[in-house]
Amino acid sequence: MKFKQPKKYKPMLEIIKEPWPWYVAGPLIGLTVPALLILGNKSFGISSSLRHICAACIPANLSFFSYDWKKETWNLIFVSGIFLGGILASQFLMNPGDISVNPHLKAELATYGITDYSHPVPVQLMSFESLLTLRGFLTMVIGGVLVGFGTRYAGGCTSGHAIMGLSSLQWPSLVATICFMAGGFLMANLILPLILSI
Fold this sequence. Notes:
The chain is mainly alpha-helical. It has helices at 12-17, 22-30, 32-40, 48-57, 73-92, 103-110, 128-131, 134-154, 158-167, 171-196.
Protein backbone atom coordinates (compact mmCIF):
# COMPACT_ATOMS: atom_id res chain seq x y z
CA MET A 1 0.00 0.00 0.00
CA LYS A 2 1.47 3.33 -1.09
CA PHE A 3 1.04 6.48 0.92
CA LYS A 4 0.72 9.79 -0.85
CA GLN A 5 3.39 12.29 -0.03
CA PRO A 6 1.88 15.41 1.53
CA LYS A 7 1.99 18.45 -0.72
CA LYS A 8 4.71 20.90 0.12
CA TYR A 9 3.39 24.43 0.29
CA LYS A 10 5.56 27.50 0.12
CA PRO A 11 5.70 29.59 3.27
CA MET A 12 3.63 32.78 3.04
CA LEU A 13 6.76 34.96 3.32
CA GLU A 14 8.25 33.32 0.21
CA ILE A 15 5.02 33.91 -1.73
CA ILE A 16 5.01 37.60 -0.74
CA LYS A 17 8.65 38.02 -1.83
CA GLU A 18 8.00 36.70 -5.33
CA PRO A 19 6.53 38.85 -8.12
CA TRP A 20 2.80 38.34 -8.31
CA PRO A 21 1.34 37.41 -11.70
CA TRP A 22 -0.72 39.99 -13.55
CA TYR A 23 -3.92 38.00 -13.08
CA VAL A 24 -3.59 38.41 -9.30
CA ALA A 25 -2.08 41.90 -8.98
CA GLY A 26 -4.23 43.45 -11.73
CA PRO A 27 -7.63 42.52 -10.27
CA LEU A 28 -6.47 43.56 -6.78
CA ILE A 29 -5.55 47.01 -8.11
CA GLY A 30 -8.77 47.16 -10.11
CA LEU A 31 -10.88 46.31 -7.07
CA THR A 32 -9.69 49.48 -5.29
CA VAL A 33 -11.94 51.49 -7.62
CA PRO A 34 -15.30 49.96 -6.64
CA ALA A 35 -14.12 49.67 -3.03
CA LEU A 36 -13.44 53.43 -2.84
CA LEU A 37 -16.69 54.27 -4.60
CA ILE A 38 -18.73 52.01 -2.30
CA LEU A 39 -16.96 53.11 0.89
CA GLY A 40 -17.48 56.82 0.36
CA ASN A 41 -17.67 57.90 -3.28
CA LYS A 42 -13.91 58.58 -3.33
CA SER A 43 -11.70 58.83 -6.40
CA PHE A 44 -8.47 56.86 -6.65
CA GLY A 45 -5.41 58.96 -7.41
CA ILE A 46 -1.98 59.67 -6.00
CA SER A 47 -0.88 63.03 -7.40
CA SER A 48 -3.59 64.99 -5.56
CA SER A 49 -2.00 64.06 -2.23
CA LEU A 50 0.83 66.56 -2.82
CA ARG A 51 -1.78 69.31 -3.14
CA HIS A 52 -3.40 68.19 0.12
CA ILE A 53 -0.01 68.21 1.91
CA CYS A 54 0.75 71.71 0.61
CA ALA A 55 -2.71 72.96 1.61
CA ALA A 56 -2.18 71.58 5.11
CA CYS A 57 1.40 72.80 5.59
CA ILE A 58 1.71 76.06 3.66
CA PRO A 59 -0.32 78.92 5.17
CA ALA A 60 -0.67 80.88 1.94
CA ASN A 61 -3.64 82.70 0.45
CA LEU A 62 -3.40 80.91 -2.89
CA SER A 63 -6.75 79.93 -4.36
CA PHE A 64 -5.35 76.55 -5.48
CA PHE A 65 -4.68 75.62 -1.83
CA SER A 66 -7.76 77.29 -0.33
CA TYR A 67 -10.10 74.36 0.26
CA ASP A 68 -11.00 72.01 3.09
CA TRP A 69 -8.11 69.56 2.79
CA LYS A 70 -9.27 67.73 5.93
CA LYS A 71 -12.00 66.06 3.85
CA GLU A 72 -9.17 64.36 1.93
CA THR A 73 -7.41 62.93 5.01
CA TRP A 74 -8.23 59.43 3.76
CA ASN A 75 -6.07 60.13 0.67
CA LEU A 76 -3.12 61.18 2.83
CA ILE A 77 -3.50 58.02 4.94
CA PHE A 78 -3.69 55.93 1.75
CA VAL A 79 -0.50 57.49 0.33
CA SER A 80 1.25 57.18 3.71
CA GLY A 81 0.39 53.48 3.63
CA ILE A 82 1.95 53.14 0.17
CA PHE A 83 5.09 54.92 1.40
CA LEU A 84 5.31 52.83 4.58
CA GLY A 85 4.61 49.64 2.62
CA GLY A 86 7.45 50.49 0.23
CA ILE A 87 9.86 50.99 3.12
CA LEU A 88 8.81 47.75 4.82
CA ALA A 89 9.03 45.79 1.56
CA SER A 90 12.48 47.17 0.72
CA GLN A 91 13.81 46.41 4.21
CA PHE A 92 12.24 43.04 4.98
CA LEU A 93 10.72 41.52 1.83
CA MET A 94 13.36 42.13 -0.83
CA ASN A 95 14.73 39.15 -2.70
CA PRO A 96 18.46 39.13 -1.83
CA GLY A 97 19.49 38.24 -5.38
CA ASP A 98 20.03 40.64 -8.25
CA ILE A 99 16.98 42.03 -10.03
CA SER A 100 15.98 39.79 -12.94
CA VAL A 101 16.43 41.66 -16.23
CA ASN A 102 15.88 40.41 -19.78
CA PRO A 103 19.27 39.42 -21.29
CA HIS A 104 18.69 41.56 -24.41
CA LEU A 105 17.92 44.61 -22.25
CA LYS A 106 20.97 43.87 -20.08
CA ALA A 107 23.18 43.81 -23.17
CA GLU A 108 21.72 47.10 -24.43
CA LEU A 109 22.06 48.81 -21.04
CA ALA A 110 25.64 47.58 -20.72
CA THR A 111 26.51 49.70 -23.77
CA TYR A 112 25.48 52.73 -21.68
CA GLY A 113 27.54 51.60 -18.67
CA ILE A 114 24.57 50.29 -16.67
CA THR A 115 25.54 46.95 -15.14
CA ASP A 116 24.55 47.02 -11.45
CA TYR A 117 21.21 45.28 -10.81
CA SER A 118 21.60 44.78 -7.07
CA HIS A 119 18.97 47.47 -6.30
CA PRO A 120 15.41 48.04 -7.57
CA VAL A 121 16.76 50.72 -9.92
CA PRO A 122 20.23 50.77 -11.51
CA VAL A 123 22.72 52.54 -9.25
CA GLN A 124 24.42 54.11 -12.28
CA LEU A 125 21.17 55.98 -12.96
CA MET A 126 19.57 56.66 -9.58
CA SER A 127 22.00 57.63 -6.84
CA PHE A 128 23.30 60.80 -5.20
CA GLU A 129 26.57 60.42 -7.14
CA SER A 130 24.79 60.24 -10.50
CA LEU A 131 22.63 63.25 -9.57
CA LEU A 132 25.74 65.41 -9.99
CA THR A 133 26.16 64.26 -13.61
CA LEU A 134 24.31 65.69 -16.61
CA ARG A 135 22.65 62.33 -17.27
CA GLY A 136 21.49 62.01 -13.65
CA PHE A 137 20.26 65.61 -13.53
CA LEU A 138 18.24 65.12 -16.71
CA THR A 139 16.66 61.84 -15.60
CA MET A 140 15.97 62.71 -11.96
CA VAL A 141 15.48 66.49 -11.72
CA ILE A 142 14.23 67.51 -15.18
CA GLY A 143 12.30 64.23 -15.50
CA GLY A 144 10.69 64.79 -12.10
CA VAL A 145 9.68 68.34 -12.97
CA LEU A 146 8.18 67.19 -16.28
CA VAL A 147 6.23 64.41 -14.56
CA GLY A 148 4.87 66.93 -12.04
CA PHE A 149 3.98 69.42 -14.78
CA GLY A 150 2.38 66.72 -16.93
CA THR A 151 0.34 65.41 -14.03
CA ARG A 152 -1.02 68.88 -13.27
CA TYR A 153 -1.60 69.67 -16.96
CA ALA A 154 -3.47 66.38 -17.51
CA GLY A 155 -5.52 66.86 -14.35
CA GLY A 156 -4.24 63.67 -12.75
CA CYS A 157 -1.66 60.92 -12.82
CA THR A 158 -1.64 57.50 -14.45
CA SER A 159 -3.42 55.87 -11.51
CA GLY A 160 -6.12 58.54 -11.45
CA HIS A 161 -6.77 58.44 -15.19
CA ALA A 162 -5.85 54.90 -16.28
CA ILE A 163 -7.35 53.11 -13.29
CA MET A 164 -10.10 55.33 -11.90
CA GLY A 165 -10.97 57.41 -14.97
CA LEU A 166 -11.15 54.58 -17.50
CA SER A 167 -13.15 52.34 -15.18
CA SER A 168 -15.72 55.11 -14.74
CA LEU A 169 -15.81 55.67 -18.54
CA GLN A 170 -14.44 59.23 -18.58
CA TRP A 171 -13.47 60.45 -22.04
CA PRO A 172 -10.70 62.84 -20.78
CA SER A 173 -9.09 59.90 -18.97
CA LEU A 174 -8.99 57.88 -22.19
CA VAL A 175 -7.26 60.78 -23.99
CA ALA A 176 -4.83 61.25 -21.08
CA THR A 177 -4.02 57.53 -20.92
CA ILE A 178 -3.37 57.39 -24.68
CA CYS A 179 -1.03 60.39 -24.30
CA PHE A 180 0.72 58.75 -21.31
CA MET A 181 1.32 55.60 -23.35
CA ALA A 182 2.48 57.49 -26.44
CA GLY A 183 4.83 59.59 -24.31
CA GLY A 184 6.19 56.46 -22.62
CA PHE A 185 6.93 54.76 -25.95
CA LEU A 186 8.55 57.94 -27.30
CA MET A 187 10.67 58.35 -24.18
CA ALA A 188 11.75 54.71 -23.90
CA ASN A 189 12.62 54.25 -27.57
CA LEU A 190 13.92 57.65 -28.72
CA ILE A 191 14.71 60.13 -25.94
CA LEU A 192 16.04 57.88 -23.17
CA PRO A 193 18.73 56.25 -25.39
CA LEU A 194 19.99 59.76 -26.22
CA ILE A 195 20.13 60.74 -22.54
CA LEU A 196 21.84 57.48 -21.56
CA SER A 197 24.51 57.98 -24.21
CA ILE A 198 25.62 61.26 -22.57
